[in-house]
Amino acid sequence: MKKLLLLFSTMLLIGTLSAQKQGKDYSNILKSKSIYEINAFLRDAHPDDPRRSVLKPRVMEMMREYIKNAHPADQKVKQMQEWLAMLKRRPSTKISFDEMNAIIKQKQIAKYKAELAAGKSLAVYTPSTPQNAIVVNTPATTTAAAIPDSEAQEFNMLMADNPVEHKNKTVKILNSLFDNDPTTKECIVMIENKSDCNIIVRMESTGTIKYRLPVPAHGDNSVVVQKGDYLFTSVVCGAQYASQKTIQKPIMVALGNPGK
Question: What residue range is the signal peptide (predicted)?
Fold first, then answer.
């Protein structure tokens, strides 16, 4: 029997659980030569911890060196630049729920504005081959990801929006992103697929309220849904995913490879 995935799921909040923080050992942090480890320490440590005065300038210099010596195609450079900019004006790269919400929202607005202007999705989609491989080309990557035979045709159909359907969907998503009215009956759900496989996320509520969202490997997709309680299910690289969620405000759900 396929095991249930314990996959990362958040509500527009990317951070470290308090229990995990308590289990981290920073006793030798002053000897660390890892940007990621020092960066994590600065996020977790008490504001008055004296080691901050030593480690913050050190990790900033390490980031500058990394950026200086990195390959032009290194995708970590952008993250290092963002962290460095944050450390210049604040104690750490830790951000609040509201800040993360705003960042994700602005990125989604920019994405869908660009798609609306182009009149089509910016991702280049190729339907599945006889071997049931589905290829999705994005600006950052080209992925040939397997999807279960039973879902391959359905994934193709859901991805193949015609221009009118895509425009209507994009306008609806943009309206939802700009809508700050808490009394509205709808809100946006964003699915980020960090796995190596294309997936279909199914969201089922009461009665006939159901949504299907195709999400390419290493990509994301959004849908505007009615507020309420939903069962989210999917098959991620052959493993089952299921989670119950109450949707009363915009959320992001991130799914990754099984066991990671």
Answer: 1-19
